[in-house]
Amino acid sequence: MSEHAVSIDVREIMRCLPHRYPFLLVDRVTELEPDVRIKALKNVTINEPFFVGHFEQYPVMPGVLIIEALAQAAGILAIKSQGERADNELYFFVGIDNARFKRQVVPGDQLVFEVTQKTVKRGIGKYVARALVDGQVACEAEIMCARREV
């Protein structure tokens, strides 16, 4: 195991992120280096609520939800890098660049999210993110998250 291998379960993820079912899209964090990178997982099952209406005969995970899951992983990295989130703070997904979809994601797949921090300035972080299935890139993008008081 890597020196940065960790196991952050869904209960700890829920302490970081305000998202809840059906919109919490990260199941587990397996590696974390604060201010550097995160590796996280999402197990995709046929029971996902979006499969009811997203191509009945050929269920495919919507790309926008893969992007959202990458943003959630980036948010966890940001929060863990800053030393937790205050009760009056949220991290918002504020930007996306160079998003590309390379492979469909279907029930039974396990998405592996790899997010690397590029920069953080004035509470806005930029991240390079990719989602993989069986080692193949399903999606890649540059994501921006901003910490704001609410």
UniProtKB/TrEMBL annotation:
Record field: transmembrane: none
InterPro entries hit by this protein: FabA_FabZ, FabZ, HotDog_dom_sf
Subcellular location: Cytoplasm
Molecular functions (GO terms): (3R)-hydroxyacyl-[acyl-carrier-protein] dehydratase activity
EC number from the UniProt entry: 4.2.1.59
Catalytic activity: a (3R)-hydroxyacyl-[ACP] = a (2E)-enoyl-[ACP] + H2O
Gene3D superfamilies: Hotdog Thioesterase
Annotated catalytic residues: 54
Function recorded in the entry: Involved in unsaturated fatty acids biosynthesis. Catalyzes the dehydration of short chain beta-hydroxyacyl-ACPs and long chain saturated and unsaturated beta-hydroxyacyl-ACPs.
Name of the protein this chain belongs to: 3-hydroxyacyl-[acyl-carrier-protein] dehydratase FabZ
Gene: fabZ
